[in-house]
Design goal:
The structure is a homodimer of 217-residue chains.
Chain A (H helix, E strand, L loop, with lengths): L15 H19 L6 H8 L4 H7 L2 H11 L6 H5 L11 H17 L2 H9 L6 H24 L8 H18 L5 E2 L2 E2 L3 H19 L6
Antiparallel strand pairs in A: 1-2
Helix pairs in contact in A: 1-2, 1-4, 3-4, 4-8, 6-9, 6-10, 7-9
The first copy, chain A, binds a DNA duplex (30 and 30 nucleotides) through α2 and α3.
Chain lengths: 217, 217
DNA sequence: CAATGTAGTCACCACCGGGTGACATTGCAA
DNA sequence: TTGCAATGTCACCCGGTGGTGACTACATTG
């Protein structure tokens, strides 16, 4: 068992910033590969090939590391991403179509972000730095979008735009997150593009039915 | 430290069936009070005031115990419960109203079953005996109900009834489960009856808009 | 080149989880 | 009453976790 002073070539130059980045990156990898349940200091340090004590020294513990990870991650679609294809100068596009487009963009955005789906699932069960961050961003953005929609939909005072948006986005959140583990929900294949087209088509229909102004048929 | 042969009066008569019941009941209590994350042999045995080895002997491990617990629990609303208030002899009641009533009953049923909400949350994250059981029952029942609805809604071939039912029930699952930990979703208070009335009213509107036969307005 | 603070390593602790083998006690049947 | 299987108790083992103190190795500065 001679472990002499073998100069290990894989040693990285000592650099705090680099190490911090490695830890943050490792957090993402552990989350993606093993899920939230296994996300702990030991697993992260192992993945980053770094000693776990550095998590305490640099981030003051797991919470701090998760906060750092949350702030530098692209978990939530930007407003621009959600509004792609929406004519913002108003009037030219029926509000129902705007709604449908936003929800379509939302579906695409979620299905392309597996880590967001992980967090979305986990926030059903536990509240922590990551889930709190995602919640906050979502709630603010949701309110902004809903507010804009509601303003345009004044011609339909009997429709509760916030409730409608809540229902549809809740359904999308649920189905997208569940598609990680199951294939069929009520007979609809939620792992498949075809299944989502059925869902999106239905969303479009109900948006038209509820939001179109009566005279613009 | 004299621990003589003090005959402990709280000793139960030895009885396997009684013990099994205690373990099953303790499973429910641990689940309700500490959530899924803490549901393990140690916690259950402690709660049941019984040695954990009996979980292995009688149920062949935690999985078996959870299966037993699932089979004897009232986690899922029965078809009768969901169909309460629905006129089944058909024809007399518009299909939109039937749909709305079923979804209303579903909301009530879920909000009154905290353990079901726990399981519903957990099945977003992990698949085990309990969540698998709930999934199976739901999928079967959902398909049956959707099939019945679809048969009645023949007059609206352009509407994808399964997709519509999936959307609405997914939204209900999501919002009911999330209401365990958060209060507002997109500005709607999901811990409050008033908030749910907004949601249900919107469900009723979209059911009318999509399912009502064109001539029965 | 020496000194010093920082980056990183290592060994260790207490705790808790699942799981098991050996033992004591009880009820019941022969 | 005796014997035995069923019931229940206890003491462990193992591995993993979060967390900490003492150490070494390095880079930079004077």
């Amino acid at each position: 068992m001679c472990h002499l002073l073998v100069t290990n070539d894989k040693r990285m130059a000592r650099n705090r910033q680099t190490t911090e980045q490695q830890l943050i990156a490792a957090t993402g990898r552990v989350l993606a590969q093993q899920g939230f349940g296994k996300l702990g200091v030991n697993a992260i340090a192992r993945e980053a090939r770094v000693d776990k004590v550095l998590i305490y020294r640099y981030f003051d513990g797991l919470s701090g590391l998760m906060r750092a990870y949350a702030e530098q991650g692209d978990f939530w679609p930007s407003a621009d991403e959600l509004l792609a294809g929406v004519d913002q100068v108003s009037g030219l596009q029926p509000i129902a179509q705007q709604f449908t487009t936003v929800m379509h963009n939302y579906v695409q955005a979620l299905r392309v972000r597996p880590l967001t789906l992980q967090i979305l699932s986990w926030e059903m069960v536990e509240r922590n730095e990551l889930t709190a961050y995602l919640e906050e961003v979502r709630e603010q953005q949701g309110l902004a979008l809903t507010g804009a929609l509601a303003a345009i939909a004044e011609h339909r005072p009997e429709v509760d735009v916030a409730a409608l948006a809540s229902l549809v986005s809740a359904a999308i959140n649920y189905l997208a997150a569940r598609s990680q583990h199951i294939k069929y929900f009520n007979g609809v294949d939620i792992t498949d593009d075809a299944g989502w087209q059925r869902l999106e088509r239905t969303i479009a229909q109900l948006a038209e039915a509820l939001l179109l102004s009566p005279d613009s048929v």
